[in-house]
Amino acid sequence: MTVSQRVSSITQRICEQSRPTRDVYLDHLREAASRKPKRSALACANLAHGFAACSPSDKAALAGDVIANLGIITSYNDMLSAHQPFETYPQLIKAAAKEAGGVAQVAGGVPAMCDGVTQGQPGMELSLFSRDVIAMATAIGLSHDMFDAAVYLGVCDKIVPGLVIGALTFGHLPAVFIPAGPMTTGLPNDEKARTRQLYAEGKVGRDELLESESKSYHGPGTCTFYGTANSNQMLMEIMGLHMPGSSFINPGTPLRDALTREAAKRALAITALGNEYTPVGEMIDERSIVNGVVGLHATGGSTNHTMHLVAMAAAAGIKLTWQDISDLSDIVPLLARVYPNGLADVNHFHAAGGMGYIIRELLDGGLLHEDVKTVWGGTEGLRAYTIEPKLGENGTVVREPVAAESADKKVLSTCKQPFQVTGGLKMLKGNLGTAVIKTSAVKADRHIIEAPALVFDSQAQLQDAFKAGKLDRDFVAVVRFQGPRANGMPELHKLTPALGVLQDRGHKVALVTDGRMSGASGKVPAAIHVTPEALDGGIIGKIRDGDMVRLDAETGTLDVLEDPEVLAARPTPDVDISHNSYGMGRELFTAFRNVVGRADHGASVFGL
What we know:
single chain; alpha/beta; Glucose Oxidase, domain 1; 2 domains; 8-stranded mixed sheet; 4-stranded parallel sheet; globular
């Protein structure tokens, strides 16, 4: 099945606007590939340092250029549930590498923080910046130039995008991403959300709330709602960086371990020492990026990826814009209902057909590029991913064609009968600037909100007003000075329960902010990532209480309905944000806040 003309046209536009930077990137990649690791040419002291702790047999293997060395970049820590399973992966990978006639070494570790822990706390202001720290830490791990390929162990919010940016910076090396999988299903996500709202109203106490949260987040693996972490896994598979079918297999299972061993062996098979050399920087091209955006829309994925995909693409010299993302949203239907877009979790999604079903449906609908390179290789391109993985009798992975129909039509639908005809994300434009909204979880009668503004300079101010009973009315909450330059662009999920309560009381409410709400954006219409941000002189910083604001997710507009000359003449208020610059390590990120780019440019500190 060939890709549709509309998808092809957008892809061609991305190719044309990327050509100058992509050409330079590929020139650099090929120069690096021509210098491929030649360990025997290293000075003896250099090489001795590189394998000093290895076994005698591994030392002998690494002394020459014939045996491939696999670098492991890991985000393991045992505080973060999604990454705790990675503790045992290096030994699995090393054993698999040995079986395949290679060597594997842990090249380095990268930090992995949990937004779920830091929500509403000062540490959340380091969250977005951690993506670029992870990319830099990846580069440090690979800078020893000891490796012929690398595997990347990461799952959650900023970790995978950071790892991708780092991997693409070393684009001459093959790269395989290895996930840990989702935790098993716990308390249903809608019950968790209901308890949060009851707590916000003071109808249940902290003990009840903690019990609810602990039943929801209860074991190793990713959170089971379809937020940024699980959107990451979807992206890695649909972009061909995972082994087929590996995204949503639970941790600690024989199939999970078999997929990990298989991934290690495949990484060794695609080095420059063999006949299937697949450098990740050539493998990931404009078509792969478009496939990622299409998958994001079709599944109602995380709004964070409107920034992450832009930054990831830029690391490969590809210029992806919010306009490209928006244009694809107009032609890609929503095929999945996973919380917060529905009641199912990612385990239900996988059981209904999962990634194999989604990829096949989108391929057959002409919405994905089939003729892309993947780590799996072969001539099938992305069609090789239209499968369901199972454990074979000998402990290896076997793959069967995914079922013809969804096993649960309330979770997965078809291109002919989608849950909605356009994607789950939409761009908004107007005199307020440019913003992003996740429409897939918002009921159609709330897609247009016009109401007076109530302006807040922090989410704490809004919460205080709610607790004081001052918000029982129709309004648009404008929460400003939350952009990348102001305070690192934290997620503002502490607002969700309060705004949800007010909406349930029958009020027309919406949120407009230069901050983030991420993949868990829920039922309240939220125009997020507003750019230019308030600190950059954006109009969001000039709105006053009572100004009429109109958010229209149907036409894709976001405006303050005031005289343009009056708005332009207003000064940006002198708000004291000095408290954002110290405490909980924020002092160390002053340089990041000073140089970070706009949200629509990926909110990156690299200037790519």
